Amino acid sequence: MPNVVIVGAGPTGATLALLLARRGIPVTLVEAARDFQRQFRGEGLMPSGLDALHQMGLDTLLETVPHRPLSAWEFWLSDRRLFRANEPLGSARPCTLVSQPPLLAALVQAAQTKPGFEWISGTGVKELLWDKQRVTGVSLTDGRTIEADLVVGADGRASLLRQKAELTLTTQPKSIDVLWFKLPAPPNYENDNRFCTVVKGGRVFSLFHGAEAGRLHLAWAISPDEPTEQKNWAATFAALVPPELVEHFWAVEDKISPPMRLSVMVGRCDRWHRPGLLLLGDAAHPMSPVRAQGINLALRDVIVATNHLVPAFQQADDSASAVIDCALARIQAEREPEIIQAQKLQAHEASRGEMLRRFGLLSQGLSAFSPVVGPLVKRVWTQQQQPLREGITPVRLEV
Ligand SMILES: Cc1cc2nc3c(=O)[nH]c(=O)nc-3n(C[C@H](O)[C@H](O)[C@H](O)COP(=O)(O)OP(=O)(O)OC[C@H]3O[C@@H](n4cnc5c(N)ncnc54)[C@H](O)[C@@H]3O)c2cc1C
User: Fold this and answer.
1) Which of 227, 240, 321, 359 is the most exposed place for a label (fewest CB within 10 A)?
2) pLDDT for the residue 355
3) CB 296 less than 6 A from any atom of ligand 1
């Protein structure tokens, strides 16, 4: 049986490794970090991502991982709520925050029970190995080399494999960075976890109770050239948050974590593959944080890749390389339309927030008439969320 090396144990690499190992394919999963306690960018799973985990047979595993459903989405303009839309907004499952470190650890642990699975962590991939025009394996930073019939680059948006294979990433102009804060959650968020987006004072930010018990997350959008100032964040937030939260922000003033600056990159490779190499997830198409798409789309990439790779690996004999390489183009062709559309919808969502932020009069007008316009805006917004929640093209695990 041909073998695969997967580089990167984020959501893409860890789920692909488990799915392939469960189907008897020899898999080596290489992760540069020693553990999963590193900087994570978001933990929101949409119904489409939860459905992908369900199709992968991971409902029981998910139950063992700290997670927390969202109760609603709220939009605040100045000090008035424009609308509240309750989850699950007509979907089968509510949008859910899932803690990534334990999820990834559980996925790798499950893969480790399968024969033919090898886990290498704390050592990154340094180079691709080539035989003429075909990738034939990887070399690691500790000097080891691993030969493979297929190398999968699941090494995230700064993908080294993408660079080594000279697969060009076309990026959208950089419009925001995010400052991420954590602080104690107010008690009324425990059971009513609304994702609040606030537009006020020329700022846009969101807050919600994360998967971890008792922690409120606050994502503060800034322009990429804006410095991370040292300021009295409690006072800044208290002046902007919905009135019901003002007292809380003062009460936890000294418990607000120092901000973590997360840069946002959005883009797409024209070509996701070379002979012997496939890019998936953020390595092929880094996603914006808007409406939590990246992990969800990565999980759907993995399902489609599994559908195409498993038969290719099972059929492959002397012509293994050619059969596998043919599958790679089909994977990109099946996934690309959804990625293009999701990135367009994310940009559209972001531009509406930006318009409200920049045009104070518009935002004030909507705020003043929120009892009248709120229900209408809510209806339109809810309808427009469906593709970003449910996925755009059908994705079914068939093997
Ligand atoms: C601010 C922000 C918030 C976000 N919030 C959400 C959200 O709520 N929901 C959502 O769905 N998406 C969200 N996203 C997007 C999401 O983070 C990514 O789309 C997702 O993590 C992609 O998963 P991945 O496995 O492809 O890559 P990654 O999660 O980046 O994983 C890549 C892995 O590869 C490893 N690696 C890198 N180089 C090497 C190497 N040379 N050798 C070995 N290993 C290597 C890394 O250590 C890492 O573990 C957010 C993004 C941003 C910027």
Assistant:
1) 227
2) 81
3) yes
* Tens of pLDDT, residues 193-226: 999 999 998 899 999 999 999 999 999 999 988 8
Is 317 a residue whose pLDDT tops 80?
Answer: no
The per-type count for the chain, helices as H runs and strands as E runs, is 12, 21
8 Å CB contact between 172 and 298 = no
CB of 10 closer than 6 A to ligand 1?
Answer: yes
Report the first-to-last Cα separation within the chain, whole angstroms.
17
CATH class of 4-40+99-172+265-351: alpha beta
Q: Of the candidates 149, 153, 165, which has an alpha carbon nearest to the alpha carbon of residue 8? A: 153
pTM of the model: 0.96
Average pLDDT rounded to a whole number, residues 66-86: 95
CA dist 349 and 385 (Å) reads: 9
Question: Hey, what amino acid is at 241?
Answer: V
Handedness of CA 118, 123, 124, 127 (dihedral sign): negative
- Strand 44-45's sheet: what is its strand order? 44-45, 96-98, 67-69
Helix axes 360-368, 320-358, angle to 10 degrees: 80
- State which ligand 1 atom lies nearest to the alpha carbon of 281: 26
Nearest atom within ligand 1 for CA of residue 287: 19
Residue 44 CB–ligand 1 contact under 6 Å = yes
Which residue has a Cα nearest atom 33 of ligand 1? 8
Q: What's the pLDDT score for residue 377?
A: 93
The DSSP code sequence of 303-331 is: HHHHHHHHHHHHH-STTHHHHHHHHHHHH
Q: Can you point out the beta strands (E) in 87-153?
A: 96-98, 117-121, 125-131, 134-140, 145-147, 150-153
Ligand 1 test: best mutation among 287, 290, 388, most atoms within 8 Å of CB?
Answer: 287
Whether the per-residue pLDDT at 157 is higher than 80: the answer is yes
Cα dist from 242 to 146, 195, 206, 237, 352, whole Å? 54, 12, 11, 10, 20
Using CA atoms, how far apart are residues 320 and 311, in angstroms rounded to an integer?
11
Q: How do the domains of the chain map onto residue ranges?
A: 4-40+99-172+265-351, 177-263
SS3 label, residue 231:
coil
Q: Whose CA is closest to atom 6 on ligand 1?
A: 42
